[in-house]
Design goal:
heterodimer; A: alpha/beta; Pyruvate-ferredoxin Oxidoreductase, domain 3; 6-stranded mixed sheet; globular; B: alpha/beta; Rossmann fold; 7-stranded mixed sheet; 5-stranded parallel sheet; 18% strand
Chain lengths: 195, 584
């Protein structure tokens, strides 16, 4: 089978990972690849875990990414990064926003927010079994004038590892972001890309 | 030809547009909702939200008999509601072609059960097509409509969450202009009294024989010969999983899952060493293949529950994992907390469930965002079965156990009330019930993403229309006690609930306020005054995701607070204050 590249995007309902997947999809299609994207709607939108699967290559059959299969993971929240980490393939790359959003069982005290996520991620980096980029995307996006663009920052970080030129992403932003938010989103993307 | 990335649902709508569909109807339900939302974007298609799936199909039947090509869409459980017209429409047949899309939800991502819709095609004795990606979803809408007209039958198209909500590339075509067929009165074909029904049943059986022959030769079914040591029969998304897991195996790819092409299956079975069938949920194909006397392995190694995956196929057929796993030191030391969906900050349903829990009532629930009132810490729901069951099951609680009389509250949303609440309420009044029905009227169908309904005053096409008055409907149904309450006024809501519970007759409380996600106005923010807070934890019982407790200190995340002030009213110590000064 021809090589398929798998990108998993995890976050919390309401964080808006849709824009990040739209930007990537635009770039992937401009470069002539086959592409499949799978998302779960419905209950998951009410503050639950959300997950987008993206797979591209010359031919893609299954739209789903399974454990040990993701070449890249982009996680918009620290706990979600930890949740989906087993989906990263050995040697894969993860981009994680260090922001914490507590799930209701943690808020109620029924469960604990895991205390050693960053240490766990560092262990992966240090042993060279995978590459981890942990960034405070919310802070960077806020500095760019648009706190809601945290995912675009992460998308920029991820883009630096993907085989497409920066101009393609700028064109994708032109095509997917409303004009009044465009400059802030471009700044956010470039800030992530240059990390 | 231009290719576009489309979800299965967008592609189904596009297929309807290209195949000349003039009328489309549905009731929203995950994962099918976006089919009609997208169909409505084509000016050539008159698309509508119907009050429920039965009504959607019945309006579709009328439009088909009148001569138009028609699309009707629903989630799998919606077919239960529409089953009555479907099984007799199978007898009358069509005039303009009609395709009924049923979207299954294996794994129950957003459903109350995971029934397998394929049984309906068999039960109704009508054909069913099953696409494996968005391109096929688009193409099969046209194929279904042509089949419908050629064989004079409604045709089902089966989607699933992974087809409906996966985006794949689709080649776009132009719209075919399909003229409205002349309408011709034909009593013996369209009026199903016993004498004519008997005639039509014979026609149905004859049609099934013809369809079996059609399935043998149709290009919708195909054998892909590769290595012959393993052969797999699969349809829909399972075909993609098989290609991923077993790229070298021979595959019989079925686009028609009812009726099955028996000769083609025999040919394929005799050409491979070991035969498997990979299908989600029930052994629908497997049992029929086994009944043909063919040895095939299916549910011996695959589950009856949930979804199949490529790795599961590799593991169970080849005995090996598809991917090697990352070694993560310490991963299993601490459990990873789940992140379940919750009622949003400022949700208009929160106060209702807080009070129902506090008053220790028996709550007969229903389907919508408010079903989340069953989760911790609210846990204020005793049962939830299907659309509309709250009101009727509530009456049953009272009938089945007289000790519960005066303690039963039925909770239903506005859209669900229009879907199937009216008949239940008529039953309560007629049969001398005394239950309290709370209609949580947030002015929209919220759970599926804010679709209009008969109470909102707007159609799917964006036209203004009559907004049906829920209170007047309840009065007309014979309810003498119809009250209204604001969910953001906790004390008043509690007073009304207690008053109506005490009444020895049916009553309705319409709890009215627009869904908080629709309120785009400026918001107050609240904070906890730690000097006044006694850490009693009452505010935590609201289950609001912006209120949290850390090291015994309770705080409000002001960035997410939308100022509903329900917590302010729940606090007995006046410890919750408006950010920037002052009380509520």
């Amino acid at each position: 089978m021809p090589k398929v590249t798998s990108i998993l995007m995890g976050g919390v309902g309401g964080q808006g990972i849709i824009l990040a997947s739209k930007i990537l999809a635009h770039v992937i299609l401009e470069h002539g690849h086959d592409l499949k994207i799978s998302e779960i709607h419905g209950m998951a939108q009410r503050g639950g875990s959300v997950l987008t699967h993206m797979r591209f290559g010359s031919y893609v059959s299954s739209p789903l990414i399974e454990a040990g299969q993701a070449d890249y993971i982009m996680a918009s929240e620290k706990l979600e990064a930890w949740r989906w980490l087993p989906f990263l393939r050995p040697g894969g790359t993860m981009v994680v926003n260090t922001q914490e959003i507590k799930p209701v069982p943690v808020i109620l005290g029924a469960q604990q927010y895991p205390s050693k996520i960053l240490e766990g991620l560092s262990a992966i980096s240090n042993s060279s079994t995978g590459t981890i980029h942990a960034v405070n995307a919310l802070e960077i996006a806020t500095a760019c004038g648009q706190p809601r663009a945290a995912n675009v920052v992460l998308c920029g970080v991820l883009a630096n590892s993907l085989p497409f030129p920066l101009e393609s992403y700028m064109a994708a932003l032109d095509a997917t972001v409303p004009p009044r938010f465009l400059e802030q989103n471009k700044a956010a993307f470039k800030a992530g890309y240059s990390l | 030809m231009k290719k576009k990335l489309m979800s299965g649902n967008e592609a189904i709508a596009r297929g309807a547009f290209e195949a000349g569909v003039r009328f489309a109807a549905a009731y929203p339900g995950t994962p099918s909702t976006e089919i009609l939302e997208n169909a409505a974007l084509y000016k050539e298609i008159d698309a509508q939200w119907s009050s429920n799936e039965k009504v959607a199909l019945e309006v579709g039947i009328g439009a088909s008999l009148a001569g138009s090509r028609v699309l009707v869409a629903m989630k799998h459980v919606g077919v239960n509601v529409a089953a009555d017209p479907l099984l007799t429409f199978a007898y009358t047949g069509v005039n303009g072609g009609l395709v009924l899309v049923a979207a299954d939800d294996p794994g129950m991502h957003s459903s109350q059960n995971e029934q397998d819709s394929r049984h309906y095609a068999r039960l109704a004795k009508i054909p069913m097509l099953e696409p494996a990606d968005s391109q096929e979803a688009k193409d099969m809408v046209r194929a279904a409509l042509e089949l419908s007209e050629e064989f004079d039958t409604p045709v089902m198209l089966k989607s699933s969450t992974r087809i409906s909500h996966s985006q794949t590339l689709v080649s776009l075509g132009d719209r075919e202009d399909v003229p409205i067929k002349p309408y011709k009165k034909d009593i013996k074909k369209y009026v199903m009294i016993p004498a004519y029904g008997r005639l039509r049943h014979a026609a149905v059986e004859e049609r099934m024989n013809l369809l079996r022959g059609y399935a043998e030769d149709s290009t919708l079914n195909r054998i892909e010969w590769r290595d012959k040591s393993i052969g797999v029969i699969a349809a829909g998304i399972c075909y993609q999983y098989v290609r991923e897991a077993l790229p070298n195996a021979s595959v019989l790819k079925l686009g028609i899952c009812h009726p099955l092409p028996q000769d083609l299956i025999k040919e394929f079975a005799s050409g491979v060493d070991k035969l498997f069938v990979v299908e989600e949920l029930d052994p629908f194909m497997e049992e029929q293949i086994k009944a043909m006397g063919i040895a095939v392995t299916g549910k011996e190694i695959f589950p009856l529950l949930g979804e199949v995956s490529p790795n599961m196929i590799a593991e169970r057929i080849l005995g090996k994992e598809l991917n090697s796993l990352l070694d993560i030191p310490g991963y299993s030391d601490e459990p990873v907390p789940v992140r379940p969906p919750v009622l949003c900050p400022g949700c208009t349903h929160r106060s209702v469930f807080y009070l129902l829990r506090k008053l220790k009532l028996v709550v007969s629930g229903d389907i919508g965002c408010y079903t989340l009132g069953s989760l911790a810490p609210l846990e204020a729901m005793d049962t939830c079965i299907c659309m509309g069951a709250s009101i009727s099951a509530g009456l049953g609680f009272e009938k089945g156990n007289p000790e519960l009389k005066g303690k039963v509250v039925s909770v239903i949303g506005d859209s669900t009330f229009f879907h199937s609440g009216l008949t239940g309420l008529a039953d309560v009044v007629y049969n001398r019930g005394t239950t309290v029905t709370m209609i949580l009227d947030n002015r929209i169908t919220a759970m599926t993403g804010h679709q209009h309904h008969p109470g909102t005053g707007q159609t799917l096409k964006g036209e203004p229309t009559a907004a049906l008055d829920i209170g007047a409907i309840c009065t007309a149904l014979g309810v003498r006690r119809v009250k209204e309450a604001d969910p953001f006024n906790l004390q008043e809501l509690e007073r009304v609930i207690k008053e109506e519970l005490a009444a020895e007759e049916p009553s309705v409380i319409i709890v009215r306020r627009a869904c908080t996600l629709l309120d785009k106005g400026p918001k107050d923010k609240y904070m906890i005054n730690t000097d006044k807070c006694t850490r009693c934890g009452v505010c935590m019982k609201l289950g609001c995701p912006v209120i949290s407790k850390d090291n015994d200190v309770i705080s409000i995340d002001a960035s997410l607070c939308v100022g509903c002030a329900v917590c302010v009213q729940a606090c007995k110590f006046g410890a919750i204050e408006k950010v920037g000064g002052g009380n509520a």
